[in-house]
Amino acid sequence: MSSLHELAHAKINLYLHVTGRRQADGYHLLDSLAVFAGAADRLDLKMGSGRGGHVALDITGRFCAGLGSEDCADNLIVRAGAMLREQIGTDAARALPDVEITLHKELPVASGIGGGSADAAAALRLLLRVWNLDLPRATLMALATRLGADVPVCLEQCAARMEGIGEELSPAPGLPPCGMMLVNCGQSVSTPQVFKTRAPVFTPRATLPPAWVTLADMVRDLAAQTNDLQEAACAIRPEIMTVLDALRAAPGCRLARMSGSGATCFALFDSPEAARAAQAAVQQAGAHWWVWAGDLCRSTTEARTSIPA
Ligand code: C5P
């Protein structure tokens, strides 16, 4: 059988409002618009020789060292496999072929662009295919939520509004053509620490139009929103402010903001070409920074891969 693969695209929060707190477990309630960039990790899968549905994981790629100390058994990809086996029951799991997954880690780790969540989601998509499992969408989404609050949106891998703790998805407004730049200063950020550090104030849910026709319209509306985690992340990692300054100073930048709980920041440009044209100027501000420029996955089908309805 030929090797199967999936891309795990970077998830960008165009804005992120903390709207409240869930009583039961202290998780924060969010309102966020998530989009996906062309930048991605890649997962390759080969069938193993045994049975039992075991998932062996090998990690390589530019940022594999970021996961170096992590025991592979703790990796979300391996846990995704365990959850699927548990879901279908011990007897059915015994018949599943073992698989070997190679993760090419090209996105910075613990960086606010959903890397680990996107990897887990890509693993779920791969395993559903090779194990020929047909789980109801609601079951799959509940399983994804247990893996992490960002995993459901990464499973669908198309622009969406995220509410609840991130698991309540609804369609994003139509997006205009634009380009995107991503910059990470090389410092990981702990999501729980950022949530703990933020001032305990809440921001209302945003009012969004059904579609944005031009980038100027989208930027005007997004500029009125915030990433409520940005200030706390900047207090923990001040270099994020340097990144934001460099992005705002880049020729053609229309909006610069941090994604998720950081430290990765994004900037919007008129086109992928405009974003790429500004890349060298930003890289000059930080030679050690990871800088990516290119496309935003705009349509709902561009990045989507087959999830059973
Ligand atoms: O769900 P995930 O594992 O990505 O979340 C990591 C941590 O971030 C949680 O343990 C929690 O402390 C915090 N978090 C939160 N509210 C969310 C998402 C994450 O408080 N909606």
UniProtKB/TrEMBL annotation:
Annotated catalysed reactions: 4-CDP-2-C-methyl-D-erythritol + ATP = 4-CDP-2-C-methyl-D-erythritol 2-phosphate + ADP + H(+)
Catalytic residues (positions): K11, D150
The UniProt record lists the keyword rRNA-binding: no
EC number: 2.7.1.148
Chain sites annotated for binding ATP: P108, V109, A110, S111, G112, I113, G114, G115, G116, S117, A118
Residue ranges annotated for the GHMP kinase C-terminal domain, each copy included: 213-287
Keyword tags: ATP-binding, Isoprene biosynthesis, Kinase, Nucleotide-binding, Transferase
Annotated ranges, domain GHMP kinase N-terminal: 75-155
Molecular function per GO: 4-(cytidine 5'-diphospho)-2-C-methyl-D-erythritol kinase activity; ATP binding
Any GO BP: terpenoid biosynthetic process
Pathway assigned to this chain's UniProt record: Isoprenoid biosynthesis; isopentenyl diphosphate biosynthesis via DXP pathway; isopentenyl diphosphate from 1-deoxy-D-xylulose 5-phosphate: step 3/6
Function summary: Catalyzes the phosphorylation of the position 2 hydroxy group of 4-diphosphocytidyl-2C-methyl-D-erythritol.
Family, per entry: Belongs to the GHMP kinase family. IspE subfamily.
Protein name: 4-diphosphocytidyl-2-C-methyl-D-erythritol kinase
Native species: Komagataeibacter sucrofermentans
